[in-house]
Every structure is written in structure tokens, then in C-alpha cells.
């Protein structure tokens, strides 16, 4: 079977060039309400090309790493790389570090184009790869310099040159880099344009991750046809309602999806009137799914092709009257051969292994000649190479050239569109010291779906059957963690079954995989008699997007990857299924289905309250340890500035404070205690944070970074090192804190209370050390609303706030207990200064901010809602991070200010109230409506999952005071916070107290646009140490 067309001798680069010149004003890319034309695409690609070549990072025939989220910069970077005659290598930052390091080293990547948020992922991988490589951040202005020449960019690119390398799983457990060429890419683009009749204005969805070859097809199909590529945030691509909403809103006309994802859109297909064409690929597609979609007059294509032949080699347009769903006919310039074991052609209708030849066949596996020679063979029927697919197929007996798929002839499988070699998983598991032998196979688990879903459409999952070594005990959790450290998440088995021995074939040469036991069917959660714990386990499965039956009654939600967004889904489902509204912290307190079910029973019987930890006696919690050597504090501390220890430097404030202290140069040595497995990991983590916050990493050469944990006795340091610090350190800066809003006090106290107690132990060990404790303005509590106190001084006795601490969330109560403990130490003689910042906002020069902060989520969430609550007496007390860091550094380095209390906020006359802040944003162009607090709180119930406030919905709606007021309602009035001590200390400096006004909001505006409009927020839980 052979099809050919007249192939113009050019590359995909020249084709896109011609499109850019022909349609300069047509839209190339859309992201939300942002647009990029073809003319702008070409111009920005020239800018990037100019910068990278000037740095010597982009050359013809070089390989360039690309670790980036869907964005304009992603497409621009690919275009610039291809024009230079180089090849791009996609890297997924979510991969385990070992795998990422392997890929970087294997491809010998010395340049990686990325974004600052991924510095923490890439930096250690680069270092482990032992290459002297560098990262280029595409989200910094340095890259985008004005063009110095208007000449056309690029090198002469030959069709045989590499265009990109995609890494696939390998049967040895080692990823293989597949090398694909420009001619294969061009052939794919040409076939797509003719098959789908592409034209300017047609909107195509970019769904696949750039690490998978389907994304390459989406990209070249759009750009080579002059169409418009529509990009969205990862959250908007979640299968089901969210993806359907996005497609409808963006009026997408063409999508390419795995069948398992398309199936989740089936119930919403009548709500997608603009959708004209659907392409499925990556896994076998049920004919019922195809029939469901063509019934709505949507053109439906089934595509097939391994990565090694440039994404796709056959395609078939399904018709309503068809009785089967073939994989289709060969693309132009593609040759298909169905061969027997002797490499002879099979008769039509007979099954054999499919081999593919022609222009799309890649150059093999990077630096793996042996395995390349077994899969890329000399073509016995023509010229060039043919690729051995490992797939069984047959030619239709009645339709020449039409192919049908009939399964695999090896053990490579596809799950949710991702190709997996099960041998790779087995080899990784075999490396575990307590595993004797193992076997992995896929099992199709039937899920409960909508009645609109295709009949018998299930979800495949990986199951590992493991025989432990004699005398050894293994658990599912332990092996999942082991596998997750070395394999991408989609290759980690969902279930582990432990056996005494594996069944063997009669000749005992191999495992009899057909004899491996099936898993029991998951019981339906729709039956009234189902145990609550099993029903909640299914809720966990839904929230974590796992196959039904994955979570068990004793499965820990967080060990399975639970995040704040997943918690919100659980709370919604519990309200739906049990009719109870619970706060987020309950999931932390009861993280297993069985524990949560038992709580619900007690709650139903009124024997347990939701607020079961709000009445913990904080006075007892704040007591100093009786083992503390307070006698040493009776000796005056020496105000020396030779050596300091800082905690929390991987947090937003801590990193900036470290930078300020280093810039001042007062200390000869600074130790940084960082939570990490090793000192090397600690250094890597701190370097990545400095890069993320745009702080110069050259300063870190002056820092001694040590791995430890403030939650543990002796800070998890050896006795020798703990004693050494006790002798050397003069001053301690305790910044570290768990700033999660939704964790209960019982969990957050480990970091914030116990951690402070452990730092006090250090301050009292061997000699008296000065402590600089970073507290928070929140320790005052709602004194205005609940106690009628309108003004608080820096020396305000926080004991007055104790009676109202029960309404506060875990973080505030833990910080109150910690500050009260520190004050008790001060009363015992400890030299300690207490600093209380307000909400720490972005840097005044760079605009860099901690976007997980409540303040930023509140602003971004209201902007997304188009409304805000009318609280004119609420002040958020935002204060720029550079100001906070500069103030703490200045005060701490002047011995006459040791022992004071310092509120670090701006005076009331220099800040804006809640309403005034949103009026600034209205003036800056955001459509915002002021509404009553009650209506605003009610509107939270209908937030989409992509709203920044969605993970906090339960937290914000919980009634915390007399069962009638939420936390924001309790804090709707803010006291005037005096700053006399702070301003007095600042008189001897050049530090200027900022004004919170529209100009500052304008500086922060790009951060709101970038991070809230595109919904790229990460988990809200932040642990800064």
C-alpha cells in the first residue's frame, strides 16, 4: 500500500513563513482574551532567534530543551528553534527528577528554554546531568529585545535535518529519544491541511501536552494551514464539563483527543454547536463513541500512528452507516506493509505485523544504535527504512488499502493516550530490594458513567502483581512511592496485588499473564446499602481523577496526591451525596474514607462538632518547655553580628530578607536551614527560589545552606552540628512558617508552634543568642469587630485577643501561640525582637509576588467574578515584600533596637480600604460591580473550579462566629495599627515607607492578568521552610 503526492522540496519552516507573510493580520494563537497574529508570531520569533544566537545558545543542528506551559512563548520558541535549523526537545517539569536528569543528559542539552516557575524543577536536573547548561527564561523582558536588523532570520534547513525529539518509555526502563525530521513534519502538515480543509479563522484546540507528539500535530496543523490555535490552562483542559465549557466559550471547531477524553464530552456534545471536526487517536476507539458524535453532524476521524513515524500514518473518516471503525488509509508519501514473521507480505485479510515506510519515518533512537537497528529496518520492498510498529493489523478484504487494528504483538500498551512499555515498569519494580519478582498488566475497569456515555466504555489501569522476598513485608503505598520516584505518574501502577508466586506457562519459561487474577469489580456507589466509607472512597477517586476502585477505606487522600483543589471537589461531593457542608480542614483531620465516614456518623448523631479543635487551650499550647535552659538567658546576650542563622529562606519573605542581609554584608557567615533530604538538595531548592523571585543567585556563594526541619528536635541536625551552630550563631532569624489557610490547628502547630519551640531551644543552648521572630498582624484577631478596640499599638498585649482566638483559623491561632511563647521567653530574659508584617505584597520594582497569598487570591477571584463585597471599613494591610525585608534587616542590625515590637504596615492614611482597592482596578479597566457581602458570599457557591478562590470556598463560607458570621464578616472592620516603633527606627535609614495607591496596583496588574486570567495558580498550601 503506497500513496504519493507531488512533494515540494521545502520544510515546515518555509511553509509557516509563507503563511505569516500571506496572512499577517490573521490570528495565529488565542489564550483567553489575548491574541497573537501571524505577523506578530514571526516578529517575536525573530526577536528570540536574535537573542539566543547572540548568546551562542542556538545553532544549526543543535538540540534545545523546552520546558514550558502552553503559551505564546511556547509556539514562538518552537518556531525560532526550527528556523535556526535546530531541534527542540520537550521536557515535562512534572516528571521525577531522576527521569528529567536522564533526558537532559541523554540529549546533552546545554540550553533549556523555560519559565521562572519551573526553575525549581530544572535547576537540580541540570546539575545532576553534569552538563554545564543554562536556563533561558522566556517570561523575562531580557529575552525580548528590539530587532537590530530586519533581515529574514534563520539558517538553510534541509528536509533530512532533525526537527524535534520526543522521549517515549523504553522496555528497559530507560526512556528513548525518538528523532524526527523536517520532511516528516512537512508531510504530516500537508496531509492535515488537505484532509481537514484548513483555512484562516478555523479554530483548533491545543489539548495535548507538548511532551507528547499529538501536540506537535496540533501545532503544525494549525500554523501550516493559517488557522488559529486555541490554548488554555491545564485546569480548563480537565475532561468533562470544564473542557466542554472551554470549547464552547472559545468556539473551537477542531479537536484531537484520546477516545477516553472525548467520551467525557459526549453528554455535552449538543452544547458544542461550533465543533465541526473531531479527531481521535492514541488508543483504540469504541465504535459507539464514533456513532454518538457523527449523529450530531460532526465529522469524525480515527487516526493511527506511533511516535516513530511522525505522529500519524493512517486516518479514516467515520460515517454513520459504517459497521466498524478502521484505522484508515495511508497518508500521502506513506508506505504500509503487513508482514508475517519472515517479513513476507500477508494476503489481504490476513493478520500480520504492521511496518511503516515513507517520508514520516524517523531517524531512530538518539544514541541507541542497537535498539534502533531492531526497530528501523532496511526496506526490503523499496528505499529507505521501515519501522516495525509491534501492532497487529490486516487489510480490509473488500476495500484495498483500508487497514484495521487487531492488537499488539508485544507488551506495549496505551492508557489515556500515553504509550507504556510494561517491561519498563517491571524492571523498575524489580530494583526494589524487597521484591523477588513481579508482573504488570492492564485491566479494564468499568466505571459508572452518564447514560449518554458509550456502552461498556471503561478505564484501563495498570496492576502490578508482586512476590516479596522471603520474610519481607511490602505495602501498596510503599511500592507506589518507590515507583513514583523513578517513573512518570501515568506509568505508576494504580493497584498492587501481593502473591506467594506468579503463575507460569506449562513450559515454565514465562509468566502466564492470562492466569493472573482479575480484580474484583468495584461495587456501585448508587446503592443505598453501600457503606459510607466505600462511597467516600469513590468520592476520593473522582476528586483525584483515578479509576473507580483505586481508593480504599484506609487510603490517605494526601498520599494519593490530594491538593487544595481536590479538597474542594471532595467537599462539593460530600454536600451532594450526604447533605453536609464541611470546612476544608476536616479533610486534613480525617484524610481516609473510613475516618471521614466515622466522623460523619458522629456528626449526624450530634456527638461531634465540626469545630472540634477550635477550643484548644492556646495558653497551654504557648507554655515554654520545662526542659528549656532559661537560666542561660539571665546572662546578657552579646550583640555581635558575626554569624546568623535564618529559617524560611525558601519562602517569599525569607528569600528577600536573606538577600537584604547579604547585600548589607554585616555578617561574616549566614547559615540557612532548609527543609530537604540533603544539603545538596537544600542548596538546589534555595537557588531555584532565588531564580523564581528574580533575586541574584551570585549572592548565595556567601551562604552555608544546611538541610534540616524546624519541626524535629535539634532541627533534625546531628548533635555535632547542632552544638556547632549553638557555639557559632549570634543571631537567629525565625521566618519559617506553614501559611496554609485551610489546615487545622492540630496539623499546623507542628511547624508554627513546635518549630518555634525548637528554635528557642537553640537560642538557649550553650550560649544566649538573639532571636528575631517574624510574627503576623493577624495575632491581634478581630479586636475591632468583636471587642470594640479601634486602635492597637505595637506593644498591645495579645492576651486580650485570647478570648476571640476561637473564631480564627488554624494558622492565626498557631501564630498567636508561637508569639505568646516567644513573649514568655522574653520575660525569662531572652533578647528577642518581634516583627509583625501585614499581608506581604509584590516587590515594588519587579512586581514579583506570592500569588498563593489570601490577598492575591481575593483580588484575582473578585476580578474573575466581576464583583466584590462592600466592606469599606476592611483594610487588607498589604505591604511590599522589599519594604518588609529592608525594615527587618535595618532594625535587626542596630543593637539599640533589640527587644522591641515592630508592626510592619503602612500608616492608615497611606493605604486603601477594600472598596478603594477595587475602585483602582475599575479605573484600570476591569468591569467590577460592588455588591452586598451577603450576595458576594452566596456567589461563592457557584464559582468555577478555575477561579482562584474556588479552593477556599468552604473556608470562606464557614460560619465561625455564633453560627452566623464567616471569617471575612468577622474581620470586616480592621483596627488602626500603630507603627511608631517601626517609623522611629527607620529615621536613621533611607528606607521610604510606601504608599498603597493606584500606581502600586498598576505595577501589580500584570501579575493579576498573567496568573489569574490564565488560571495557572498552584496548590494554595504553602510551607515556607
UniProtKB/TrEMBL annotation:
The keyword Cell membrane does not apply. Keywords: Phosphopantetheine, Phosphoprotein. Residues 527-604 form the Carrier domain. Pfam families: AMP-binding, AMP-binding_C, NAD_binding_4, PP-binding. It comes from the Bacteria. NCBIfam families: AA-adenyl-dom (TIGR01733), Thioester-redct (TIGR01746). This is Amino acid adenylation domain-containing protein. The lineage of its organism: Bacteria, Bacillati, Cyanobacteriota, Cyanophyceae, Nostocales.
Amino acid at each position: 500500500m503506497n500513496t504519493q503526492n507531488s512533494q515540494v522540496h521545502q520544510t515546515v519552516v518555509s511553509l509557516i513563513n509563507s503563511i505569516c507573510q500571506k496572512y499577517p493580520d490573521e490570528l495565529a494563537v488565542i489564550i483567553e482574551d489575548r491574541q497573537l497574529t501571524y505577523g506578530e508570531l514571526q516578529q517575536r520569533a525573530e526577536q528570540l532567534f536574535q537573542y539566543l544566537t547572540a548568546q551562542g545558545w542556538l545553532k544549526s543542528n543543535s538540540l534545545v530543551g523546552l520546558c514550558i506551559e502552553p503559551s505564546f512563548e511556547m509556539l514562538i520558541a518552537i518556531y525560532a528553534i526550527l528556523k535556526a535549523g535546530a531541534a527542540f526537545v520537550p521536557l515535562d517539569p512534572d516528571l521525577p527528577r531522576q527521569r528529567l536528569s536522564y533526558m537532559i543528559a541523554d540529549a546533552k542539552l546545554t540550553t533549556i528554554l523555560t519559565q521562572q516557575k519551573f526553575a525549581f524543577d530544572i535547576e537540580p536536573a541540570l546539575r545532576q546531568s553534569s552538563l554545564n547548561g543554562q536556563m533561558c527564561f522566556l517570561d523575562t523582558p531580557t529575552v525580548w529585545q528590539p530587532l537590530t536588523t530586519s533581515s529574514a532570520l534563520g539558517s538553510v534547513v534541509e528536509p533530512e535535518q532533525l526537527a524535534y525529539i520526543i522521549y517515549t518509555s523504553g522496555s528497559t526502563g530507560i526512556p528513548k529519544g525518538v528523532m524526527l525530521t523536517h520532511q516528516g513534519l512537512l508531510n504530516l502538515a500537508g496531509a492535515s491541511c488537505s484532509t481537514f480543509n484548513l483555512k484562516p479563522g478555523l479554530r483548533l484546540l491545543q489539548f495535548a501536552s507538548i511532551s507528547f507528539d499529538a501536540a506537535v500535530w496540533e501545532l503544525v496543523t494549525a500554523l501550516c494551514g493559517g488557522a488559529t490555535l486555541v490554548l488554555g490552562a491545564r485546569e480548563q483542559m480537565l475532561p468533562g464539563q470544564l473542557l466542554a465549557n472551554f470549547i464552547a466559550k472559545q468556539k473551537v471547531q477542531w479537536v484531537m483527543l484520546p477516545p477516553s477524553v472525548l467520551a467525557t464530552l459526549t453528554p455535552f456534545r449538543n452544547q458544542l454547536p461550533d465543533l465541526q471536526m473531531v479527531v481521535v487517536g492514541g488508543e483504540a476507539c469504541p465504535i459507539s463513541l464514533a456513532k454518538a458524535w457523527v449523529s450530531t453532524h460532526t465529522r469524525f476521524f480515527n487516526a493511527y500512528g506511533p511516535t516513530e513515524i511522525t505522529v500519524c500514518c493512517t486516518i479514516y473518516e467515520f460515517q454513520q452507516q459504517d459497521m466498524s471503525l478502521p484505522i484508515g488509509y495511508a497518508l500521502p508519501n506513506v508506505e504500509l506493509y503487513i508482514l508475517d514473521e519472515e517479513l513476507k507480505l500477508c494476503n489481504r485479510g490476513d493478520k500480520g505485523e504492521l511496518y511503516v515506510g515513507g517520508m514520516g519515518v524517523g531517524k531512530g533512537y538518539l544514541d541507541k544504535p542497537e535498539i534502533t537497528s531492531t526497530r528501523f529496518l532496511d526496506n526490503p520492498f523499496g528505499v529507505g527504512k521501515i519501522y516495525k510498529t509491534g501492532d497487529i493489523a490486516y487489510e480490509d478484504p473488500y476495500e484495498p488499502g483500508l487497514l484495521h487494528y487487531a492488537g499488539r504483538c508485544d507488551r506495549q500498551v496505551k492508557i489515556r493516550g500515553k504509550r507504556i512499555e510494561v517491561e519498563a515498569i517491571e524492571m523498575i519494580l524489580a530494583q526494589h530490594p524487597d521484591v523477588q519478582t513481579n508482573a504488570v498488566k492492564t485491566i479494564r475497569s468499568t466505571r459508572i458513567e452518564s447514560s449518554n456515555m458509550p456502552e461498556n466504555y471503561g478505564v484501563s489501569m495498570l496492576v502490578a502483581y508482586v512476590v516479596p522476598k522471603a520474610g519481607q513485608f511490602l505495602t501498596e503505598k510503599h511500592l507506589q512511592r518507590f515507583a513514583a520516584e523513578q517513573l512518570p505518574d501515568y506509568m505508576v501502577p494504580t493497584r498492587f496485588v501481593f502473591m506467594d508466586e506468579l503463575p507460569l506457562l506449562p513450559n515454565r519459561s514465562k509468566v502466564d499473564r492470562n492466569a493472573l487474577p482479575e480484580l474484583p469489580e468495584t461495587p456501585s456507589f448508587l446503592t443505598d446499602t453501600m457503606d459510607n466509607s466505600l462511597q467516600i472512597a469513590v468520592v476520593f477517586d473522582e476528586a483525584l481523577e483515578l479509576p473507580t476502585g483505586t481508593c480504599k477505606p484506609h487510603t490517605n487522600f494526601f498520599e494519593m496526591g490530594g491538593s487544595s483543589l481536590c479538597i474542594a471537589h471532595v467537599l462539593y461531593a460530600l454536600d451532594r451525596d450526604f447533605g453536609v457542608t464541611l470546612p476544608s480542614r476536616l479533610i486534613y483531620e480525617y484524610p481516609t474514607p473510613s475516618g471521614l465516614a466515622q466522623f460523619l456518623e458522629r456528626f449526624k448523631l450530634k456527638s461531634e462538632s465540626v469545630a472540634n479543635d477550635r477550643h484548644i487551650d492556646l495558653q497551654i499550647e504557648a507554655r515554654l518547655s520545662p526542659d528549656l535552659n532559661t537560666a542561660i538567658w539571665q546572662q546578657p546576650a552579646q550583640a555581635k553580628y558575626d554569624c546568623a542563622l535564618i529559617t524560611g529562606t525558601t519562602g517569599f519573605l525569607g528569600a528577600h530578607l536573606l538577600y537584604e542581609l547579604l547585600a548589607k554584608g554585616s555578617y561574616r557567615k549566614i547559615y540557612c536551614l532548609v527543609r530537604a533530604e540533603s544539603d545538596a538538595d537544600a542548596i538546589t531548592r534555595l537557588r531555584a527560589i532565588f531564580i523564581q523571585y528574580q533575586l541574584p543567585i551570585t549572592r548565595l556563594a556567601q551562604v552555608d545552606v544546611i538541610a534540616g526541619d524546624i519541626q524535629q528536635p535539634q532541627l533534625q541536625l546531628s548533635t555535632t552540628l547542632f552544638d556547632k551552630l549553638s557555639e557559632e550563631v549570634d543571631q537567629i532569624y525565625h521566618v519559617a512558617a506553614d501559611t496554609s489557610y485551610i489546615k487545622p490547628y492540630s496539623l499546623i502547630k507542628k511547624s508554627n508552634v513546635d518549630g518555634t519551640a525548637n528554635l528557642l531551644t537553640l537560642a538557649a543552648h550553650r550560649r544566649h543568642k538573639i532571636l528575631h521572630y517574624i510574627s503576623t498582624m493577624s495575632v491581634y484577631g478581630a479586636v475591632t469587630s468583636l471587642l470594640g478596640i479601634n486602635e492597637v499599638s505595637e506593644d498591645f498585649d495579645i492576651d486580650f485577643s485570647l478570648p476571640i482566638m476561637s473564631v480564627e483559623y488554624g494558622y492565626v491561632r498557631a501564630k498567636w501561640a508561637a508569639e505568646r511563647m516567644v513573649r514568655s521567653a522574653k520575660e525569662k530574659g531572652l533578647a528577642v525582637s518581634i516583627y509583625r508584617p501585614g499581608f506581604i505584597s509584590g516587590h515594588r520594582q519587579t512586581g514579583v509576588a506570592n500569588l498563593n497569598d489570601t490577598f492575591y487570591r481575593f483580588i484575582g477571584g473578585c476580578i474573575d467574578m466581576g464583583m466584590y463585597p462592600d466592606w469599606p471599613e476592611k483594610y487588607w494591610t498589604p505591604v511590599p515584600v522589599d519594604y518588609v525585608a529592608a525594615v527587618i534587616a535595618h532594625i535587626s542590625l542596630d543593637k539599640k533596637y533589640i527587644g522591641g515590637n515592630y508592626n510592619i504596615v503602612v500608616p492608615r492614611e497611606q493605604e486603601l480600604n477594600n472598596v478603594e482597592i477595587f475602585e483602582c482596578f475599575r479605573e484600570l479597566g476591569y468591569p467590577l460591580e460592588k455588591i452586598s457581602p451577603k450576595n458576594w458570599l452566596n456567589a461563592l457557591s457557584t464559582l468555577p473550579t478555575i477561579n482562584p478562590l474556588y479552593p477556599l470556598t468552604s473556608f470562606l463560607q464557614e460560619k465561625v462566629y455564633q453560627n452566623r458570621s464567616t471569617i471575612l464578616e468577622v474581620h470586616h472592620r480592621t483596627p488602626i495599627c500603630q507603627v511608631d516603633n517601626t517609623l522611629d527606627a527607620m529615621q536613621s535609614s533611607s528606607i521610604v515607607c510606601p504608599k498603597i495607591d493606584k500606581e502600586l496596583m498598576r505595577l501589580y496588574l500584570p501579575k493579576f492578568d498573567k496568573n489569574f486570567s490564565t488560571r495557572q495558580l498552584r496548590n494554595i498550601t504553602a510551607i515556607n521552610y
